[in-house]
Amino acid sequence: MKTLANKAAIVTGGSRGIGRSIAIALARAGADVVVNYASNEKAARKVVAEINAFGGKAVAVRADMSRSEDAADLFATTMKTFGKVDILVNNAGIMLNKPIQQMSEEDFDRVFGINVKGVFLALRLAGEHLSDGGRIVNLSSSVTRLLFPGYGAYAATKAAVDQFTRIFAREVGPRNITVNAVAPGPTRTELFTLGKTEETIGQLASMSAMGRIGEPEDVARVVAFLCSDEAAWITGQIIGVNGGFA
């Protein structure tokens, strides 16, 4: 069932991991998808090829979401290519784990530039360009509910995203635009597994109610639902997609 037929979607950071799965899920639901990437053009074009292979429509567009000019170009390209923007998924982000005392100003500026400023710029553009009745889904994290050492700056960026979500939902609600966030727990992506032993991954898996870590598709299915008409009465919510992890 094509629940997102005739919709045009932007997925920031859509070339790998959770973003890749979201782009594919939205396309399978019928949406035309802009797969945004910052540096890995090869991975983005591979996602586009996967979508085109099952009859979907997708294009890859480079943009550094921490730069206002790039963010504006991303929306302009989407409007030129598909004629509108109905769905925005703010997935682009980086994880930088260091104790607060060891984090430099450069580290701080980098993680906040992408994770917070990038979302701010995209929301501001969405307020101008998103169709009435549109959908916005931001990527938060379950670490905002925990107290893991080394996650201070990263958790702070996602707490900011949570507040953007709640407040922007009120600001665009009169246009029937919904704004929600999903907060994954540990999820099996290349970035998550890098540098972790199987023992560490097993310990994190044991913290979920279901005894496993998430898969990108687990998150993507929830995002696709939030972008559908069935989720029209859900807005301003931070939804844990984490198997009961937190």
CATH superfamily: NAD(P)-binding Rossmann-like Domain
Strand order of the largest sheet: 3-2-1-4-5-6-7
Write the CATH fold name: Rossmann fold
Provide the helix percentage: 40-55%
Report the uncertain regions: none
Number of DSSP helical runs: 8
Radius of gyration: 17 Å
Average pLDDT taken over every residue: 96
The dominant shape is: globular
What does this structure look like?
It is built from eight helices and seven strands; from the N terminus they run E-H-E-H-E-H-E-H-E-H-E-H-H-H-E. It has helices at residues 17-28, 41-53, 68-82, 105-129, 152-172, 190-193, 198-206, 216-226; strands spanning 8-11, 32-37, 58-62, 85-90, 130-139, 178-184, 238-241. The protein has a single domain (8-184, 215-241), classed as 3-Layer(aba) Sandwich (Rossmann fold). By secondary structure, the protein is α/β, with parallel strands linked by helices. 45% of the residues lie in helices and 17% in strands. Helix 1 (17-28) runs parallel beside helix 2, helix 1 packs across helix 8 and helix 4 (105-129) packs parallel to helix 5 (152-172). A seven-stranded parallel sheet has the order 3-2-1-4-5-6-7, with helices on both faces. Helix 1 links the parallel strand 1 (8-11) and strand 2 (32-37).
